[in-house]
Design goal:
Oligomer: single chain
Largest sheet: none
Number of helices: 3
Shape: elongated
Distance between the termini: 24 Å
Order of helices and strands: HHH
Helix content: 55-70%
Radius of gyration: 18 Å
Number of strands: 0
């Protein structure tokens, strides 16, 4: 597989992650990175704030606070990865 250039990412990769690409004349799917960035940001803020509130006001539900903290970390990693892909020049 040849190494892709920045121009390839700027134009978009046709059929990238699209198993039905071009089937029946359908257009190729485009990446929804901006939507994914917003959703990861929302998940990060929501889970972090909820975890702090659970730890502060519901110590008997500490397990839920830890679950929310783990989800906040996962959302932070996803946010960083999507931001990296957008900065690299992928459309979406």
């Amino acid at each position: 597989m040849p190494k892709r250039k920045r121009e390839d990412y700027e134009r978009g990769l046709p059929g990238y992650h699209d198993p039905m690409a071009g089937f029946g004349g359908a257009p190729y799917a485009r990446s929804a990175l901006t939507l994914r960035l917003w959703l990861a940001g929302f998940g990060l803020v929501f889970c972090a704030v909820a975890a702090v509130l659970v730890f502060r006001y519901g110590p008997e539900l500490a397990w839920l606070g830890w679950v929310l903290a783990v989800l906040a970390v996962i959302a932070a990693v996803d946010f960083a990865w999507v931001a990296y892909r957008k900065r690299r020049g992928e459309p979406g």
